[in-house]
Write a structure and sequence with these properties.
globular; mainly alpha; MetI-like fold
Length: 282
């Protein structure tokens, strides 16, 4: 065998055990993710199109879906803005307590969701520290959609911050300095140099925060009030249907959430991929 062939063979097999690793990975993916999702879809298919549509379009179901998707989308948007700013501060600035702030970012992920829900409810309830300030103004936070959005912001923020930090750390400061030397203001530098380069990672963080918020249950039920048609989220309605032994209703709601979430995340990932290609990242 020629030296070129040996070199090419070594390059092609740079990672030892690739076939075995790929097989184990795909098997685990099927067992953990694909098979359960396929079982849900098959169960939904057995309900029948007419019954599926009837269950999915009931007033209570539509209200819960609107609230879950709307609150999750709004919370993810706010998380994207706050997460970008917080990640920028943590990466670019040195200040007393920076390590503590950086550690606190992960606290919403580490906390049990029930603890987070009880804490938020205690703060934003009408007699809470913050809720009592808004109560005289006629603004109720806990037990309303406002409280739901705040809870979803709380649990989704770490995903944006941790996604943005390594990207911001890799930004070339020389590019920003070059823009400043060319006469660009700070605002123009941010909007024409920094933000365009951050868009792919920001979209990824937004998608992660949205997906996390859409499936959140524990921290939301305490602050939501869970009033049908007002503050009842879709995951809670699934649990309610299961407790009522209405397995068809639970399956339909879960399938609608799955399909809508998949379509949304697919669209976000495609947009992020196009942005990366436009920026020359691959």
């Amino acid at each position: 065998m020629s030296t070129y062939a040996l070199t090419l063979r070594r390059e092609q097999n740079a990672i030892p055990g690739f076939p075995l690793a790929l097989g184990v990975t795909l098997t685990a993916l099927c067992l953990i993710v694909l098979i359960p999702l396929a079982a849900l879809i098959l169960r939904a298919a057995g309900i029948g199109a007419a019954d599926f549509l009837r269950i999915a379009t009931t007033e209570r179901t539509l209200a819960a879906l609107r609230l879950s998707f709307g609150a999750s989308f709004l919370a993810a948007l706010i998380d994207a803005a706050l997460g970008l700013l917080l990640a920028w501060v943590l990466v670019r600035y040195r200040f007393p307590g920076r390590g503590l702030v950086n550690g606190l970012v992960d606290l919403p992920v580490a906390l049990p969701t029930a603890v987070a829900g009880i804490s938020l409810t205690a703060i934003y309830a009408p007699n809470g520290i913050i809720g009592s300030l808004f109560e005289p103004l006629g603004i109720k936070i806990a037990y309303t959609p406002i409280g739901i959005v705040l809870a979803l912001i709380f649990i989704g923020l770490p995903f944006v911050v941790r996604t943005m930090q390594p990207v911001i750390a890799e930004f070339e400061k020389e590019t920003e300095e070059a823009a400043a030397l060319l006469g660009a203001s700070r605002a123009r530098t941010v909007f024409t140099v920094v933000l365009p380069a951050a868009i792919p990672a920001l979209l990824t963080g937004f998608a992660l925060a949205f997906a996390r918020a859409l499936g959140e249950y524990g921290s939301v039920i305490f602050i939501a009030g869970n009033m049908p048609g007002v503050s009842e989220i879709a995951p809670l309605l699934i649990v309610v249907r299961l407790e009522e032994f209405d397995y068809a209703g639970a399956t339909v709601i879960a399938t609608v959430i799955l399909a809508a979430a998949f379509a949304f995340l697919l669209a976000i990932n495609l947009i992020a991929a196009r942005a990366r290609t436009r920026l020359g990242y691959g």
